[in-house]
Design a protein that fits this description.
about 200 residues, alpha+beta, Peptide Deformylase, two-stranded parallel sheet
Length: about 200
């Protein structure tokens, strides 16, 4: 089932999400539907708040980046088959140089901006079978995880922009929350006027 993606302006995107346990209702079906929703919107990551659920769960599949010819062959290899589920994650450590990369977000269509993030992260999480892991990621895989992790912390990539950049995109963000855009996937807009 493909969920509508919650648009910028919805309060769920600014809420810190709650942990879940393995008894969470229909968890495997939810994860399957999240992947279907993400692929339908051509995304590489999707967090539960983006479908209206304030829970600490996100998915990533960075395989599309493995075909980016601007990346080193080593980075391309790392991203091949990089498909994961993160439940109740905690970023334990962020290290390395901060570097910029142009990010976008399914909840904020048509806006792409450079965001600075640390190069390496150490993350503790559970997978879809509630197996526990602590792993280290770097480069683009770390960035995709950091972006989705921010979602469950109630942070959007636009929150990380300079005040000048924020002012420049203010009108675009207002239009997104009012539904005055035409993405090629289903969305739920918080400020759209209800038609009778």
């Amino acid at each position: 089932m493909i969920f509508p993606i919650v648009a910028y302006g919805d309060p769920v995107l600014k809420k810190k999400a709650k942990n879940i346990d393995k008894e969470y209702k229909n968890l495997s079906e939810l994860i399957e539907n999240m992947f279907e929703t993400m692929y339908n919107a051509h995304g590489v990551g999707l967090a539960a708040p983006q479908i209206g659920l304030p829970i600490r769960l996100f998915i990533v599949d960075a395989e599309p980046f493995s075909e980016d010819e601007e990346l080193s062959e080593e980075e391309q290899q790392k991203l091949k088959g990089f498909k994961k589920v993160f439940i109740n994650p905690t970023i334990v450590e962020e290290t390395g140089e901060e570097w910029a990369f142009t990010e976008g977000c399914l909840s904020i269509p048509d806006i792409r901006e450079d965001v600075f993030r640390n190069e390496t992260i150490k993350i503790h999480y559970f997978d879809e079978n509630f197996e526990e892991y602590t792993e280290v990621y770097d480069g683009l895989s770390a960035r995709v995880i950091q972006h989705e992790y921010d979602h469950i912390e109630g942070i959007l990539f636009t929150d990380k922009l300079s005040s000048l950049k924020k002012r420049l995109i203010k009108g675009k963000l207002a239009n997104i929350s009012k539904g005055k855009i035409n993405p090629d996937y289903r969305m739920r807009f918080p400020l759209q006027k209800k038609t009778r």
